[in-house]
């Protein structure tokens, strides 16, 4: 049986829509914005680098002081994740302790059921790719490690996709955002059994369209319509049927790349691009702990190519994405320990993978990235 859960987010999309939506909000609207984003009028300013549990508690306390009926969040994924969690803690203060305690033991935290609804949240992203404006998940740093929190209550009420908000986004970050959205489909497809029907049809459509818009951006077309197309496709990866029937933790690369990114201080998609050829090589060779080889080949065949690993490397080169990573073996070994402690063992995300497996994977990924770029 295929199921979809959660209340859908209302999405407003188009040039100039942010101004119109903001004017429609009531006087008790509290604006929370990234410190680097110019915003008219009073606002709480947040630093994306401070998106940890302490920042969540601090923002929740400020929400309690203001008691708004609407929170308008403006910024990238880290800032909007912080706003999501702070709104939950604002209504349910005990949730902060739940986050901190569980986050010290495991990488994934399930949101408990809330009896009281959260404050209305309107999100206007200034980046592309995370889909945070429509998703029911958020990331937060706890004791220096990035944790993922999931629950229907985190899904915002309104999303505003306005290309004017991404006008200054560098081309590299646009391309990385499209890659992130693309892998949000291919990862679960490659990590699950065949679903067929509408989910596969919608997944194929999104994969084709995301690659097409990525090529446009790589060719120098970053016009408002292209940026809007990228944002709408990214949101669609969270809201449609494409992921229905896939395993909840089937995108193994995400957990592996999350720890590599944290441990080496890399941008998320740099770590992902470095790691993915090594992960897909193992899937293609039949190691089902990482995914399903038949589904990986099917996902890549949607682009008219037979070799997922070679095709991926070509795509990364065509999009001009830098994924060369340097790291000594002892550091990678330590990151492997953190990875298995947070996501492996009895946890389903990386079940079946030992520390030695992950260490070898990281070594292969770093060596492979350097070799491909020489």
Task: Give me the Rg, rounded.
Answer: 20 Å
Main beta-sheet annotation: 6 strands, parallel
Principal-axes geometry comes out as: globular
**Main sheet: strand order:** 1-9-6-4-2-3
Residue-averaged pLDDT: 93
Proportion of strand residues: 5-15%
Distance between the termini: 48 Å
How many strands appear in the DSSP assignment? 9
Which blocks of ≥5 consecutive residues have pLDDT under 50? Answer: none
List the secondary-structure elements in sequence, H or E.
Answer: EHEEHEHHEEEEEHHHHHHHHH
Residues in helices, as a percent range: 40-55%
Classify the secondary structure makeup into a structural class: alpha/beta
Number of helices: 13
Task: Please explain how this structure is put together.
- This protein has 374 residues and is α/β, with parallel strands linked by helices.
- The chain is 50% helix and 12% strand.
- It is built from 13 helices and nine strands.
- The strands form two sheets. Strands 1-9-6-4-2-3 form a six-stranded parallel beta sheet, sandwiched between helices. Strands 5-8-7 form a three-stranded mixed beta sheet, sandwiched between helices.
- Strand 7 (137-142) and strand 8 form a beta hairpin.
- Helix 5 packs parallel to helix 7 (224-239), helix 6 runs antiparallel to helix 7 and helix 9 crosses helix 13 (355-372).
- The chain is globular, with a radius of gyration of 20 Å.
- The termini are far apart.
Characterize this entry briefly:
This protein is α/β, with parallel strands linked by helices and 374 residues long.
What features would you highlight for this structure?
single chain, 6-stranded parallel beta sheet, alpha/beta, 374 residues, 3-stranded mixed beta sheet
